[in-house]
Amino acid sequence: MVFVKISVVLTGLIVFTQCLKTDVSQCQNGGPVPNVTLTSNGVVCRQSPCNVYTGHAANILVDFISPFYTEQMKPNLTAIAAGAVVPWPSNQKNACDGITNTACPIVKGEHVIYSYKMDILSLFPEIYATLIFSLANEADGQLATCFTVGLQILKH
Predict the structure, then answer these.
(1) How many alpha carbons lie under 13 Å from residue 118 in its C-beta half-sphere?
(2) What is the DSSP letter of 28?
(3) What is the pTM of this model?
(4) Residue 39 burial by Cβ neighbours in a 10 Å radius (0-12, 13-18, 19+)
(5) Where residue 156 falls among pLDDT bands split at 50, 70, 90?
(6) Is 96 helix (H, G, I), strand (E, B) or coil?
(7) How confident is the model at residue 6 (pLDDT cuts 50, 70, 90)?
(8) What is the pLDDT of residue 1?
(9) pLDDT score at 9
(10) Residue 19 has what pLDDT?
């Protein structure tokens, strides 16, 4: 698990520890739910909806155990806003480029940390959206991990 630890140490004893991660939900189509940290404007979003700002990027850190062997993974982002389902513009075609702790190919049971810089385009309106984020095996589309999170898109 990847997390940021905040600790207060008195005479060698840790008296307070807090994990900074974002609460996310499981996708309707399944897929293992990862540990996620979504950061916008330098602030970790702890609870959905997460405030994100147009013209700025949100950073998403996805921490999971691979359920299968894969040579390549593809990120898939979809938004549901005002009843419409639309693809989220992606700036990455190969998820292997965003893996920070290992390299593709990934073996079954391997710990994977994936980092993604999600652009919040200036043309986006102020609106609530549900983001569906998945990493899938390039060869057969099988989900390595999937989660949903609410986003409150705000003008900056």
Answers:
(1) 28
(2) T
(3) 0.85
(4) middle
(5) confident
(6) helix
(7) very low
(8) 40
(9) 36
(10) 59
DSSP-based three-state secondary structure for 92: coil
Q: Please check the confidence at residue 111 and state whether its pLDDT lies above 60.
A: yes
SS (H, E, C) 29-85: CCCCCCEEEEEECCEEECCCCEEEECCEEEEEEEEEECCCCECCEEEEEEEEECCEE
Q: Which amino acid is at 29?
A: N
Residue 83 β-bridge partners: none
Whether 96 contacts 73, CB under 8 Å: yes
Query: 122: which 2 tokens?
Result: 């200036």
Q: Which CATH number fits domain 21-154: 1.10.10.10, 2.60.40.770, 3.40.50.300, 3.40.50.2300?
A: 2.60.40.770
Q: What is the mean pLDDT of residues 78-107?
A: 94
Domain residue limits, the chain: 21-154
Q: Could you give the CA distance from residue 142 to residue 144 in angstroms, rounded to a whole number? A: 6
pLDDT band at 30 (very low <50, low <70, confident <90, very high): confident
CA distance 73 to 110: 14
Q: Residue written as tokens 């359920």?
A: 67
